[in-house]
Amino acid sequence: MDIKSLLNHALKSDLVKQGTQKLSQGSSSLSSLSKSCNSNDKSINKNILGAFGAGAVGGGLLGVLMGSKKTKKMGKKATGIGGAAALGALAYKVYNDYQSKQGQTPNVEQAQFDENDANHSVLILRSMIAASKADGHIDEEEMAKIEQAVENMGADYQLTKLVSEELHKPLAPSEIAQLAISPQQASEIYLASLIVADEQNFMDKSYLKELAKQLNLADEVIYQLEQQISD
């Protein structure tokens, strides 16, 4: 199973719900999910995400990160997006359309979305984890639960280190914004963050506002991205 497939599954509401239940039950089934991943893959990015497995990324990890209240909202939003490649392509289209309306000539290389680039999946996952932490509901107990689930999957050192660092580091929208190497990727980061954020939560809204500022996104781009996942 490739990275695109993993995050396609991650954006399915049924896996989010199932994953939340699995983690609350001790993640006994997550280990078996990891066996379906390609253990011979030498790519760093694929090693990081490959060990998660579809249910782990979509349900186990993100389900617990968001909490039960957010999970239902995320499920509805994610179903509308359809998958990781669709999310990235949609974000790129929103920005490219905005640029065209402004009469600007796009950078051809930046404007093209490559769905086979594994970096998109890493960017999306990191953006979602950060946005999920914005309301502060992830305490030490929740962190331990997530880390135990990752361990149960037989994750390698790189994956364990990545998850632990992302969970324990201070929330910093500026750091997430620095992942973007183009305005199109900035849109991708913001859209991924919108999916897991609760628009009714003050802390989530504050995080999104600061993230948009750090990403240097125009108000019109923000509005159009929000429209893509509006109920």
Automatic annotation (TrEMBL):
InterPro entries: TerB-like (IPR029024), YebE (IPR007486)
SUPFAM superfamilies: TerB-like
Chain ranges passing through the membrane: 48-67
Annotated protein name in UniProt: Tellurite resistance TerB family protein
Keyword Transmembrane helix: yes
Alphabetical keyword list: Membrane, Transmembrane, Transmembrane helix
Taxonomic superkingdom: Bacteria
Transmembrane in keyword set: yes
